[in-house]
Design brief:
The protein is α+β, with helices and mostly antiparallel strands and about 120 residues long. The N and C termini lie far apart (about 55 Å).
Length: about 120
């Protein structure tokens, strides 16, 4: 009887340890990524976040009455945003990414993404 109880206790402890490890991994992954909003208004990109990391998401919100883009100079992304709409972008890799609007070339910015 004591041996069965010890076996049950060990299995229960092992299962709890696995669940705790999975929960901790999920929490740390969620903590590592963030979502940021950049509003485009009056023909300008809003303030860009300065603490971006690979895996973060940017929601681009176009509050102007004309279409805009967020187009990387290296062509790694090209996001088209109709007036009054929004689009999301998940940052896939680290680096420095200058971008512009293809319709309004004076609209420019740079995303700095850490690893």
């Amino acid at each position: 009887m004591i041996d069965e109880w010890n076996l049950f206790s060990r299995r229960t402890f092992a299962a709890a340890a696995v669940l705790l490890a999975v929960s901790a991994t999920s929490l740390s992954a969620a903590e590592k990524s963030g979502t940021y909003t950049v509003t485009i208004t009056q023909m300008r990109y809003g303030t860009l976040p300065d603490n971006l990391k690979a895996g973060d998401t940017i929601v681009w919100v176009n509050k102007d009455t004309v279409q805009h883009t967020v187009t990387a100079k290296d062509h790694s992304f090209d996001i088209r945003i109709p007036p009054g709409k929004q689009a999301s972008q998940t940052l896939a890799k680290a680096g420095t990414f200058p971008f512009y609007c293809v319709y309004h070339t004076t609209m420019r910015g740079t995303l700095k993404v850490a690893g």
